[in-house]
Amino acid sequence: MPQPAWHPERLAARLPFLRRRARLTAAVRAFFAARGYTEVETPYAVTAPGEEVHLSAFATERVSPIGERRKLWLHTSPEFAMKKLLAGGAGPIFQLARVWRNGEGSDLHAPEFTMLEWYCPGAGMSDLIAETLALLRAVLPPVVTCRGVTTDLAGAETLTVAEAFARYAGADVLATAGDAAALAAQAGARLRAGEEWEDLFFRLLLERIEPHLGRARPTFLTHWPAAQAALARRDPGDPRVAERFELFVCGIELANAFVELTDAAEQRARFTADRARRHALTGTPDWPLDEDFLAALDHGLPPCAGIALGFDRLAMIAAGADRIEQVMWLAEG
User: Fold this and answer.
1) In this structure, are residues 276 and 216 in contact, taking their beta carbons and an 8 Å threshold?
2) How many CB atoms lie within 10 A of CB 58?
3) In CATH, what number is assigned to the domain containing residue 286?
4) Do 248 and 218 meet the contact criterion of CB atoms below 8 Å apart?
5) Across the chain, which distance is largest between two alpha carbons, in Å?
6) pLDDT for the residue 51
7) Do 258 and 232 touch, CB atoms closer than 8 A?
8) Is the pTM of this model over 0.85?
């Protein structure tokens, strides 16, 4: 029987990584304080945990003093709550939040983990890319090695999704949008039974593109197809794509960022479409739409950009850890 995570021998093996994590936490807070950000805390148990199609949430229940019961969910991201604060006038904010995603577990995934999320009113994609690079350079050594991959933070690569598919998959991802057979033909891939365009998009991304990203230098993968916009706004100059980027360092997907969608009607329509797809894929029970979030958008979310960065993965990179469990003080088995 394996030793528990608190056992002195197991804890001693993790302590160098954990102490590096503690220094990293302090450095991150200092970085944002110096830039005029306010640290916030938002509820973990919420009415609606998020609308991401491929994430599964943990259910819980609140019992009132008079015995009334209300089903709640542990959030998969603090995004909705933080945007409510932005709509209320909080200004630039950041949070180190515990988040929960059911059914996850690997060397890079845990069902409960820490998300570093921040939002800057008035920022665009290039501003957020520059700030993210500044954060990496402020809290990490100039050269980092994790899981056998060494990345020099002195430079960075910015690559659009369309450029990445052309370079590594030989396909025009925008011209074939919505047409799985066309994308498969261009990429020289065999279309699997029941595989739709989105499924093939992510398969090619995982198998052919991500292995090339964020290795010698950080990679910002930008301008995602509009179907993958999530909560990002469409690019005013090219509505085929959304102002979204993902960041890769040491070959690890580290962050996901949006120039935020501020249109409540469009966001409601996207939520409705996401729910229909989630039902078709998983048949999982639903939660009420976060009407309070949509009301905040309708009231007026200021133009802004925001990013969610996996803090445990950042700690892995800082400490040179191989597995996420090495940078966690304790994890529920």
Assistant:
1) no
2) 18
3) 3.30.930.10
4) yes
5) 62
6) 84
7) yes
8) yes
